[in-house]
Every structure is written in C-alpha cells, then in structure tokens.
Amino acid sequence: MPHEEFETASEEAGERLDRLSANRLGIGRSLARRLIQAGLLRVDGSEVSPSYRVHGGERIEAEVPDESPKLEEIPVPVVFEDEYLIVVDKPAGLVVHPGAGNPSGTLVNALLDRGIAGGEDPIRPGIIHRLDRDTSGLMAVAKGEPAYSGLVGMLSARRVRRIYRTVVVGGGLPATGTVDSPVGRDPDNPTLMAAGVGKTAITHFERLREAHGYTMLRARLETGRTHQIRVHMSAIGYPVHADPLYGKAVEGRRLWLHAERLAFEHPVTGEELCFESSIPEDLREAASSLGLT
After folding, report:
1. Which CATH fold would you assign to the domain 3-63?
2. How far, CA to CA in Å, does 133 sit from each of 93, 136, 257?
3. How far apart are CA 228 and CA 201, in angstroms?
4. What's the pTM value of the predicted model, to 2 decimals?
5. Are 265 and 164 in contact (CB under 8 A)?
6. Does domain 158-293 have CATH number 3.40.190.10?
7. What residues act catalytically?
8. In this predicted model, what pLDDT tens digit does every residue of 176-212 receive, in sequence order?
C-alpha cells in the first residue's frame, strides 16, 4: 500500500480535508473520505473527520491502496442478466464492494468478468444500492451507461420497489404501519446509524405472524438509507432478531433480514421486471425455532 504525504499550504487553510486530499493526491473524493474514516489518512499523525478544515503547515500522511479490484471465483446466484444490467441473489456473509484496506472477497470481485460498470468510484463499479454483509437477497448491478444513471435516478425517485422479510423481537405491532424518521450517522458513534438525524427515511411494514414474543414482518423501503430497516425497527422498540449492532447478537444465528422482492422498470428497454427470492434455509430454521412457521 503506497505511502503518500504532503504539507498543507497557507492558502489552503479552511478547505475540507476530503476535498483537499482528493485534489492533492489525485484520487476520488469518495476514496479520500473512506481513507480518512478508516484511519489511513491522518493530519499530523492524528485521526480526524472528512469534514475537518485544514490549517496551513499541517502534515498529511496517507496509505493509498490499489483501487483496482481483482476478479475472484466467488459463487453468486444470478437471477437475471442482459447487456445492460445484472440481478443477483446475494448470499449472506458477502460484502458488496471493496473498502479501504479490504480489496477482496466481495460481490464486486465476483462479478468483474460480467462487465459491471458505472459510477465514479472504481471500487464500486455498477453498484447502485447495497445490502449489508449479513443480509441476503436481491440486488441489481449496472453494466455501465445508460443503465447506471437510469437506475440511480429511479432509486432517487422512489421507483424501485424493494421488499424485505424480517423477524423482530417483540409482539403487539399493528397489522400494518409506517416508520417515518430520518436516518443518518449516529452523532455519538459515527460507525453506527441512528434515527432522528440525517436524511428522510420511510419504512412501511406488514405483520405476517407473531409467536412467543417475536414477529415476522414484510417491510417495504420507500427510501434506502444505510441500515434503514434495522435502525427503524430498533427505534420503535422492535430490533431485528440477532442484530449485533442495533439489537442483540444471538450465538449461531445471523441477522434475520432478507431482500425477497425487487421490481423496477428496465432503465433501457422499459420492460417491467420483478424478481423474488426464497427465504434461505438458515433463516427458515431460525424462524421455525421461534414458532414463526
């Protein structure tokens, strides 16, 4: 991992660290931000935030990884593919794209030979939305323009229908409901997300069954913030079962969350596309043990 360093000039005082570092190091701003957040880009030896305003005469040191992900043989079920996009059924345990200091073992590495492309970030080619590592289910990935811009625009316009199945801890939820609360970085712990701060976030849910203090829900995302379902359900007192971040980890079980349905208009052909994914065996077994069958 190449080591880079430079000293800030007096005329650069007041600039944001992520923007300045991107310009001085010749890298994308998103990469600069990730390096700062990972502690791989420091100011006078100290970790700061991407929004830090620099002063003249500070020493900036960075470890800049190779930004070219490599193809790896990682099995990923493909449910649809054409020349414009690909839809996969992501297994649990698979990270979607490489990160700073983590260049391999991701969905991107698995799909590089299928022509995925689009966007300005070289380690996230074609990635328009993500699933958490331990969340399984359906994801669409672009193969370049015009599919990339089209899908990003549809997500922004809330024209991509994403439905999840989840099991939460607690009973007594109404038959249907909506959680409408912003989601953003937790001001007390920036490695987590929190409700009540950040950008608009809306989750609709439908109660499917309830037993022994657990409830199975179908959840529909109107927006797509990081950890949205997990944060929203925890915020109303019903954390996702086996959620180690916003609920309680359960030994031998993973987060009970699965992206079971994905529907959208093809960004190039205009065809209506709809895909469904069966609940994985490990989640079905966990639900059965809780009496939710």
Report:
1. 3.10.290
2. 5, 8, 11
3. 7
4. 0.81
5. no
6. no
7. 132
8. 999 999 999 998 888 899 999 999 999 999 999 999 9
